[in-house]
Each structure stands twice: as C-alpha cells, then as structure tokens.
Write a structure and sequence with these properties.
Number of strands of chain B: 6
Distance between the termini of chain B: 18 Å
Strand content of chain B: 25-35%
Structural class of chain A: mainly beta
Radius of gyration of chain A: 17 Å
Distance between the termini of chain A: 29 Å
Oligomer: heterodimer
Shape of chain B: elongated
Amino acid sequence: MDQDKRLLICPENLHEGMKLGPVFYVVKPEQIEAFARATASSNPLFTKNSPAEDQIAPPTMRLQDYALLIAAHFYGGSGGVHAKHWTEFHAPMRVNQSVKTEGRITTVERKRGKFYFELEYESRDATTDELLVRQAIISVLLLEGKIA
Amino acid sequence: MSTAATNLGRELVSKPYLLDAGAAIAYGESIESPPRRAPGVNIHTDEEAARKAGFQAPIAGGEQTYAVMANFILDSFGIGFLRGGRLEAALVKPVFYGDTLTMHARIADAGSPHLQLEVWTENQRGERVLTGTARVPKESPSGSR
C-alpha cells in the first residue's frame, strides 16, 4: 500500500479479514549470521559450513515480518505488547531464497478493557510457492501509550 | 533424534542467555532487514513509554525470548523441527534488560508421530516469563530440502 494511503493504527481501523501484504525479500547470509550471534546460537546449520545442503535461517528470524506487514498498511500509534505467538514450520528458510510473506487480521476483540488483535501470516518461496512458515502474533494494542 | 531425547517426562534445560541491552541492540539490528519502521519511542526503548504502559522499566521484545526458545528446540531435536514442528507460547511476564533466561522443555507425550513438549522460560528469579507447547516430528528428514 502506498505510504500516503496508510491508515492510522487504532481499533477503529483494524478489522477481521483485512489482508496485509505481500512483502518480498531475499534471505541474506549476513542476516542469518547476525541473528544467530544476537541469540547466542552456535548451531552449525546457521553457518556457511552447514551440515544441511544450504545455510539455513534460525527458526524465527523472519518472525518480524508481522511488523513489515503492519507498517505497509498502518502508521502512527505507540506500538503494542506481544502477548502470544504460534509458529508452524513447514520447510527451512534457506540462504539467498526469495520469500513472499502475506497476512490477514483474523481476530480483533476487546477483553477486560484491552484491545487485542491477531495477525496470521505465512511465508512462501517467492518462486516455487512452497510454504515455509505459517504463524500468528496476538498483540495488545497500546492506546495513547497505555495497555488499557 | 536419539532415543534418550524422546523419553517421556525427560526435561531438557538450555544454557543461560543474558538478555541485556547489548543483546537487545544486536537483536534489533539483526532484524532490520528491510527496516521495520517501528515507532522510534516505545516500551522497549523509552522509560516514560514503558511506565505509561504499566511497566517499571523498558522491556525486551517478547519475540527475542521466543526466538531463543525456538533455537533451543532446534538445537535439542534437530532440523526436523523445521519440517512439521510447531511452537505456541504466551509471554506471561515482562523480561527486563539484564535478565538471564533459561529455556526448559519437558516431553509430555511421546506416543504419536510427534513429540509433544511442554516448554517454558525462566528468569534468574525462577519466574516463568514464557509458557507454551511445542511439537517435534520424531523422525528428522535428512537434508535441508
């Protein structure tokens, strides 16, 4: 979505069924190595000398795609608090792989004064359409900086 | 996957992970590809924003704790986790910069084609900051594809 057409992120603008994305990127070796270092991992799968056929990305390296999807459609706000997350792993994400990620708002609800939303998103090989990862973030949206 | 790794009730424990400001900065830089355009002032970076949201100090992003748990499961059970595995977790307490986290996984059910795990992360005070479940295929496919 064009930046000028983005919506303010607020409960009134978040609706069940909203489609977000797609976003595209290439899995870079530098990111794999930086992410592994940041999470103190020494797993050889994340190195150039991986015992697998290719250097592969740490399991949640692209969990952050939710933020790309949100930022492509919304602006402003004061962020949220990550409450829950689930991830289904279908195939390893490999170095230099082109990936397409898209998502959908599956739930919005007010509960005990808090505004929750669930964004489900999946990443596929942009060339072959092979499903790599399906996941969802459940977040409490901060309203004027407050949880409730 | 070794037989020992699949014993019902067995508990695996990770090495400690120090989630200090340096680790948070390194993590933040590693995921900025492409840039996320996150709000510049937020509960992870700003004292006032954190207090306004009800926290005593800025908190670490929950996804970093989740990431270390996912790495721990992969390290413990192998690449099969990335082919049919699942992780679901609630971030039940805030993690503050300087906390030391330890990941735990207990085999709750070994009777199906998958291992069912109870997983949790404790801070240095023994408080659970993440709780959840995971599923790992018993047979790890060879190769990466």
